[in-house]
């Protein structure tokens, strides 16, 4: 084995840099945090080429004296800690004295700074760790730091950088976290000289959230606030109808620092228990304030994770604050007037629907949740796979719903089920309770020959169906050698999936073009993801264009989803794209999105089908290669052979 030797300082710095500086977004985070620690009331961030060419952060904080400049970029040099005790009462965002040293080691940095009592500024340049002399320069009070060619001397790191758009997405996310954590600071972000975000001071926090994540979300937030001794909790949580399929939209702040904390995420999930289906995550922006010695922030190199002195207390404070709030709050999603393209023919019933949803949620809050849990267990729902976790069954519609049959294909969801901006939930991608409630409360449309829910069975309509519908979700059919119980949603989804796939492959997908492109407000990170997958989305008929900031214009979308709002379709596709831990290649991705569209367009459990519809559905079974499994792998049918039946009834 080679002899042990002390590593040179520059190598130590490079190793340390690897921990703190992963990509341009990390630089933005560290520089903005320094600006805020310096007492700045304004921070301007300007980026070129996703931060790979230039990251410039200018602040109007206290600035640095010329003599301090070489120290600022030395490792383990900080003005924020003096003694070991200070480490346990950190009041600043930084304290490790490592960020500037790390950044300067792997890029070309120029710092210009001036304190209030100096007449001119001072400048220091560092090139991959090589420090030049301090020289005078002109500069306003405050600090301007320019970081060029990140990782120019660490090619391996540079290779790991993704596209400009992806890196800019991360930069924007980092910028937003800090801007949300410090509402007292005016923050701006520009990319390639175009403004991305402008967050002035003095506006309400909700306004800042609106600028970052869209007005629609910001208008559907519930304010929460509580004090437990010296721990204060304030912030917003979103209505259940704004749930997501991942936890990216859960923002926690602690003493002005954005943090990630599994236990807080869990408490949040618990608070929404019964309001959301498995696999859906609430959206929240929550800020804790507590004495600095009640928390250890020195447990993670980028200080993203912290350790609370009494994490149990904080967990229960969050849970009980939200639960108490939910008991007294109208958690109903106030549906904005639907866009004309998706006008809900049953719109007249919105008020009734709202009242019903409200009642359902109040019932939940009063303890209905336990009853549902019991039901879950009774029906043997598989919590491990998370599949088919049904919410409490909505009351059956009073009459058959009309489904239009188009040509030889079974139609997608009927207009009656597309309720404005709150579409029926997709079964395999569980959605919020509120969506379910909106389906449940839709008045059924009477079809000629309709009537009470099962009147047709007795009437033997012509042609007589080869199957009957039970519980509005299964079809029981006679087969040549026994009988089959078919899951109507799973089968329809499978059929639609196969049809969609072959049409996409043949480039023959029916597309609905919008006369006026529909603007959709997304978070900048989501917009970046959307644009990254623009080609794949276009193959599915969803054509999008950037419109500046987080706004995306949708100019067409799959005809099969005509009855859904284009914005909702885009958001759900994005959720599928962004789901945590999924690294999909292009083909898998297309498959995943096809599943989502098929699932969304298919009839749902709970939809009453007419005999014609049942027949049409069964008639198409031969069109699919594997009619026995839905695209998610769930079986679509249970088969009982004559022999099974005879054996069961002890005939053989
Ligand atoms: P830390 O923030 O952990 O102290 P950094 O490497 O980020 O370590 O910064 C080192 C020091 O440089 C800080 O302690 C601070 O004194 C000074 N400094 C960095 N950026 C600024 C700034 N924008 N304004 C004033 N001082 C700064
Ligand atoms: Mg710092």
Mean pLDDT: 76
Number of helices: 20
In helices, the fraction of residues equals: 25-40%
Rg value: 29 Å
Q: Write down the oligomeric state.
A: single chain
Distance between the termini: 76 Å
Bound heterogens, unique: adenosine-5'-diphosphate, magnesium ion
How many DSSP-defined strands? 23
Low-confidence stretches: 334-465
SS content category: alpha+beta
Reported for the largest beta sheet, the result is: 9 strands, mixed
| Beta-strand residue fraction | 15-25%
What characteristic shape results from the CA principal axes? elongated
How would you explain this protein's 3D organization?
The chain is elongated, with a radius of gyration of 29 Å. It has 652 residues and is an alpha+beta fold. The chain contains 20 helices and 23 strands. Bound molecules: adenosine-5'-diphosphate and magnesium ion. The site of magnesium ion has 5 residues, from helix 2.
Task: Itemize the secondary structure elements and their pairings.
Elements: H1 9-20, H2 24-37, E1 42-48, E2 54-59, H3 68-72, H4 99-105, E3 108-114, E4 121-127, E5 130-131, E6 135-137, E7 142-148, H5 155-160, H6 164-181, E8 186-191, E9 194-199, H7 205-213, H8 215-218, E10 221-228, E11 231-238, E12 250-254, E13 257-259, H9 262-271, E14 284-289, E15 295-296, E16 307-308, H10 311-327, H11 350-378, H12 433-440, H13 455-459, E17 467-470, E18 474-479, E19 482-487, H14 488-505, E20 511-521, H15 524-532, H16 534-539, E21 543-546, E22 551-558, H17 566-578, H18 586-601, H19 611-619, E23 637-641, H20 642-648
